[in-house]
C-alpha cells in the first residue's frame, strides 16, 4: 500500500499501527480498493489520500449535509468516490483533472463503483474549469488536491462559491514539509492558509501531510 507519510519524510503513524486503524475505521469494499490500486496498476503516481483521510472527507461532508461538491485533482477517483458516498440522492461531485489519462482511469473506477451519475470528471486545468461550474453553485464543499502553486487561487474561488456553513478542504497543507520554505510555491500555500482563515473558521488537521479544514462563516 502506498504510504502517504513516507512521501513526506515523516516516519511515525505508519506501518502496522495505521493499517490496523484503517482496517477498523476505514475499510475498503471492492470498488474503493479498485480505485485505490488503480494508479499503481495504470502506471500513475499513487498520490491519492490515505484511507483514513478519505473516510474523514466522507464524514465531514455528511456532517454538513453536503449535496454539491467540487474537487480539484481527480487522479483515479478514490477521494471522489469517498465523497460521493456521503451525498444524498441527487447530490453531485464535479471533479477536475487536467490529465486525460488520469480522467479516463478515474471514469472506469467511478463506473465500477456505480457512481457515474453522481461524479462528473471535468477535464481541464483547474483555473479554466472552475469558472464553467459557477452556475451550479453555491457549493457545499470544495476539496483542493491538485497543483500546489494554485492553492491560493483555488481557495479564493472556494471563498466566493461555498455556501455559509460549507467546507473548504485542502490536502497537503504542510506542502510535503516545505510549507515554510522560501519558494514561490510555498508562499502560495501560506497565502492559501492565511486567506482561508479570513473567510472560513479554519484548522490545520495534522494528517501526515496536513489537511486544512474550514467552515464558511
Ligand atoms: N484527489 C485524488 C488525488 C489527486 S492527485 C485522490 O485523493 O484520490 C493530484 C491530481 O491533480 C493529479 O491527477 C494531477 O494530474 C492533477 N492536476 C495537477 N495539476 C492540475 C491542474 N492544474 N488542474 C487540474 N488537475 C491538476
Ligand atoms: Mg494530496
Keywords:
alpha/beta, 20% strand, binds S-adenosyl-L-homocysteine, 7 strands, 44% helix, disordered N terminus
Question: Can you offer a commentary on this structure?
Answer:
The chain has helices spanning 4-7, 15-25, 30-41, 51-63, 78-84, 100-112, 126-133, 151-161, 184-199; strands spanning 68-72, 92-97, 119-123, 139-144, 162-171, 200-205, 211-216. With 217 residues, it is an alpha/beta fold. A seven-stranded mixed β-sheet has the order 3-2-1-4-5-7-6, with helices on both faces. The longest helix is centred in the C-terminal third of the chain and has 16 residues, at 184-199. The relative contact order is 0.14. The structure holds S-adenosyl-L-homocysteine and magnesium ion (MG). Residues 47-49, 73-75, 78-79, 96-99, 102, 125-126, 145-147, 150 line the site of S-adenosyl-L-homocysteine (SAH). Magnesium ion binds next to loops.
Radius of gyration: 16 Å
Q: Strand percentage, roughly?
A: 15-25%
Q: What is the CA–CA distance across the termini?
A: 38 Å
Low-confidence stretches: 1-6
H/E element string?
Answer: HHHHEHEHEHEHEHEE
Secondary-structure-derived class: alpha/beta
Strand order of the largest sheet: 3-2-1-4-5-7-6
Major sheet characteristics: 7 strands, mixed
What small ligands are held by the chains? S-adenosyl-L-homocysteine, magnesium ion
Number of helices: 9
Morphology: globular
Q: What's the mean pLDDT score?
A: 94
Task: Please tally the β strands and state the result.
Answer: 7
Q: Portion of residues in helices?
A: 40-55%
